[in-house]
Design a protein that fits this description.
296 residues; five-stranded mixed β-sheet; 9 strands; globular; disordered C terminus
């Protein structure tokens, strides 16, 4: 259990029907959650259930996704009122986390409880990874969709099933937090719009070598530095994903000499230092990195 002064954090995700006509509503088809300790991100418990909507005709009989939810899949599932007590227990009084949950999942939860004339669970705070990562991590992956972020870190394809998507959300946050920690730990190097570049106020070993070759008052010849290549990604649309924007990425590489913020040392020692930095990044409480998004 987490500290008495720090509420447990529960990441959750809903799968729903998609209204096809004006006036149609969303029906919750699946609820999945993972409760974690906010200090260590240790999984405390998980829960997942399919949910049968009162209007089964709103559920498609076929799906284009390999693991999609069909009408047959939810035909014998419990109604929302049959699992409402457990969902309320999981969510009420805890910090809620998820991707785009403020605009979608939180609204659907309130609607579902209103349908059965029960007050909805109330969060102790909300961490929406869409807003957090948009502000802190930016669109370096292409856009802020969970599928795009997961692909950027090599985490596989999004399943669009509640529990699997929650696990993917947690892994994306861990990877982003580690990258942000490493960037903040390297004051001589900055990441700006997807480009690594040298801080002009810092003299590194490679910069000294370049200066000694071309002279302090001369500019390095153009054949020393490669021009960055622009990379664009095709946007995809989905029900829960935020609007996508096409982003051009530029990566700059140095052909012969590369500026590094550390002294010359063996590969083994450097590898050990990097491992230590990553270990420290993983040991940092996630809520310290994301505290600006916590809504009390």
């Amino acid at each position: 259990m987490s500290s008495p002064n720090v509420p447990e954090m529960v990441f959750f995700d809903l799968e729903t029907t998609v209204p096809k006509k004006l006036g149609q509503r969303f029906w919750v088809l699946e609820f999945g959650s993972i409760m974690v300790c906010p200090r260590k991100l240790v999984e405390l418990e998980s829960y997942c259930t399919l949910i049968r909507p009162r209007d089964l005709s709103a559920v498609s009989t076929r799906t284009s996704r390999p693991d999609g939810i069909t009408r047959d899949a939810v035909a014998t599932a419990p109604l929302f009122e049959e699992v409402a007590d457990e969902i309320f227990r999981i969510l009420d009084g805890r910090i809620w986390g998820g991707h785009n949950i403020q605009r979608f999942d939180c609204v659907r939860i309130k609607e579902a409880f209103a349908d059965i004339n029960r007050p909805p669970p109330v969060p102790a705070g909300i961490i929406d990874s869409l807003g957090v990562l948009t502000q802190r991590f930016g669109t370096r992956a292409g856009n802020m969709k969970m599928a795009t972020l997961a692909s950027y870190f090599g985490l596989g394809q999004q399943k669009h099933r509640s529990l699997e998507d929650v696990r993917m959300n947690l892994e994306v946050l861990k990877h982003c937090a580690t990258v942000l920690f490493l960037e903040s730990s390297l004051p001589s190097i900055a990441l700006n719009d997807g480009q690594w570049y040298n801080n002009n106020g810092v003299t590194t070993r490679s910069k000294s070598l370049l200066q000694s070759k071309v002279g302090l008052n001369e500019k390095p010849s153009e054949n020393i530095i490669n021009r960055g290549k622009s990379i664009s990604r095709d946007d995809q649309t989905s029900r829960k994903s935020p609007p996508s924007t096409s982003v051009a990425h530029q990566r700059v590489s140095v052909a012969h000499q590369r500026a590094v913020p550390y002294a010359r040392e063996s590969l083994g020692k450097m590898t050990a230092r990097v491992k230590n930095v990553i270990y420290n990044a993983r040991s940092q409480p996630l809520n310290n990195l994301l505290k600006h998004s916590l809504i009390r």
